[in-house]
Specification:
Two copies of one chain form a homodimer.
Chain A: H1 3-8, E1 17-20, E2 23-26, H2 28-37, H3 50-65, H4 67-85, H5 91-112, H6 126-140, H7 152-184
Antiparallel strand pairs in A: 1-2
Helix pairs in contact in A: 3-4, 3-6, 4-5, 4-6, 6-7
């Protein structure tokens, strides 16, 4: 990104970021809260009751130490490091990382989705979109296979969220899937 | 923690967690938001205006990918892994991890604290407490030395937050400092 973007929009020079009046704001979760408080996004996405909001926050925090972290690490190990160094990851490291990601999916399946179809109650919220799009990325990039029989609740969530957001969702993830196909052979280790 | 704690308070069986009526909530940031919305914590800690809240959220997200992550990794490398495996970390890995933490401190110094004494405006907020207590932990555990000349803004923030919270703050961090002294020799590598 450009120097003027850093100066005028986000001082960390990253996306996503918004600029509204004199407020320049980065970080998707912070943006989500801000738009929710301003009632710019639908209330089903940003519920008004404190309990649902608390549960969304709890998920967004949990995600950092778990799903987002482990998925990000897998991407880093299998794509970023090999791309930067030309050295393939060790099969065992990848195996351990996939096991860590499976532990997160197991928590999603058995704890988060134990009592309801969505992460917070019976309506789709921002939390679901975040969760599903993380999984979508590791699957789309051919880093991970989602076992629908092992994780039926997670699989249903993926289908429901895809269905709910429809074309814009597919369009956004097509980029990821195209990269997955394009670079699969480049980074194919045939061992992990 | 006990099975009944997992059942009755936090299904992830971790602290911090709160139980209020039928709401069982984990994750410090989620708890902070919840208590803030209920007006249980002072409004200076949980400002009412959307801009200040947005900036607090932005910091809390930034922290995950930066200060909290790198400090946690340093702790993990220098304490958890050696404790579990008996194998000392490589001096170079520790050096790189300390460099990563210094990059975060540099961002705190030059970006976050560029225009004001605190992370969000001119009053102490939850964001400051989070930031300072992370630094306090790596310093207290003898994993990291804060160079006050290199980071005068961060150093001032540490002093201000300590002064603001006084005795409860000192008491909470005494545990960390005691561990730091107690185990320093156990894990002292003399090389990092």
């Amino acid at each position: 990104l450009t120097e003027s973007f850093a100066k005028d929009v986000n001082r960390f020079n990253k996306v996503p970021a918004i600029k509204e009046g004199d407020l320049k704001l980065a970080e998707s979760v912070a943006i989500f809260h801000c738009l929710g408080r301003r009632e710019i996004i639908p209330s089903r996405w940003y519920p008004k009751d404190i309990k649902s909001l608390a549960r969304i926050d709890e998920y967004l925090e949990w995600q950092h130490g778990n799903l987002l972290n482990e998925a990000g690490m897998l991407f880093y190990m299998q794509w970023v490091i090999p791309f930067q160094t030309g050295v393939k990851p060790k099969a065992e490291d990848i195996k351990n990382q996939i096991a860590a990601l499976n532990r997160n999916l197991s928590d999603l399946e058995k704890i988060w989705l134990k009592k309801s179809d969505f992460l917070v109650g019976n309506e789709v919220t921002f939390a679901d979109l975040m969760a599903v799009s993380i999984i979508e990325q590791v699957v789309g990039l051919n880093l991970f296979e989602l076992d629908a029989r092992k994780y039926p609740n997670v699989n249903k969530l993926m289908i429901d969220v895809r269905g709910y957001f429809g074309e814009p969702y597919e369009k956004a993830h097509k980029v990821v899937n195209d990269y997955g196909v394009k670079f699969k052979s480049m980074f194919d280790h045939g061992e992990a």
